[in-house]
Design a protein that fits this description.
This protein is α/β, with parallel strands linked by helices. It has helices spanning 33-45, 67-80, 99-107, 120-123, 136-148, 167-177, 218-235, 243-247; strands at residues 52-57, 85-92, 111-115, 153-159, 182-187, 191-192, 210-211, 241-242. A six-stranded parallel beta sheet has the order 1-2-3-4-5-8. The protein has a two-stranded antiparallel sheet with strand order 6-7. β2, α3 (99-107) and β3 form a beta-alpha-beta unit. α1 packs parallel to α2. The two termini are 29 Å apart.
């Protein structure tokens, strides 16, 4: 998490934004250079020589770090690789991708996981900027840059109480409009609870609490998966790779 809990968006359902409350005495959580080097050195050292080492950069929003940060990542990985193969993946909301970043990702074989919640009306319901504006247009611009520079990417889509009612519109958008071949669904299931640390979202250890309005219901999630599966299994096996179906 090179930028900690920092993000340029304010998605209503984000479980991570409130983690900023854990850093009341230190609002800036950008990873400093000495921590980065220690992390890369020690993480690589955990792997036997000749093996593959995968780094996954996520957040918050990791692209709040400048391009120079990721150039330093590559320098340090090369310094400590010791004959190991290094792979980099990065998860992003897609709004901060520039031509320079897209070129860098292509040149150094980064795999990008990009968050988008379907067509504009579904995506912009919850994925908004600090000012409350929808982020879909910026995300689509980022996808365009990844495609232009030949960057390998897959879509990470959150299923919530709203877009969960439109499974085929949702799925066909990724297939027909984005020509996306790799798709991952994440259902939103969150509970609100009173906690001593000031956070509201319940952890896996917390009992009780009320479900959030944006959470997908069990029946809704089941209907969503069944509708998408019927479409996929009849038309797209071997063409579209849907993580939950492949894993099952």
């Amino acid at each position: 998490k090179p930028a900690g809990a920092l993000c340029n968006l304010r998605c209503d359902y984000c479980y991570y934004l409130e983690k900023r409350l854990l850093y009341r005495e230190r609002q800036k959580t950008m990873m400093p250079g000495d921590v980065l080097e220690t992390y890369i050195r020690d993480y690589i050292a955990l792997h036997a020589e000749g093996t593959q080492v995968e780094f996954v950069w996520h957040g918050g929003e990791p692209l709040l770090q400048p391009l120079s940060f990721f150039m330093n990542v590559l320098r340090l990985q090369k310094k400590y690789a010791g004959g190991r193969q290094i792979i980099n993946a990065l998860q992003t909301n897609g709004t901060l991708i520039t031509p320079e970043l897209a070129h860098f990702f292509h040149e150094h074989n980064f795999l990008i996981g990009l968050s988008i919640d379907g067509p504009q009306g579904l995506h912009d319901r919850y994925r908004r900027s600090r000012s409350g504006r929808g982020s879909w247009q910026q995300v689509m611009k980022g996808i365009g840059l990844l495609n232009r520079y030949g960057v390998e990417w897959n879509a990470m889509a959150v299923v919530n109480d709203f877009n969960g009612d439109y499974p085929l519109d949702f799925y066909r958008f990724f297939r027909d409009e984005l020509s996306c071949r790799y798709l991952q669904f994440t259902p939103v299931v969150e509970r609100i609870i009173k906690r001593g640390d000031g956070l509201q979202l319940a952890s896996g250890r917390d009992g009780g609490g009320e479900m959030t309005d944006f959470s997908v219901t069990p029946e809704q999630w089941g209907d969503f998966l069944c509708a998408v599966f019927d479409e996929w299994v009849r038309n797209d096996v071997g063409k579209m790779f849907v993580q939950i179906f492949d894993s099952t």
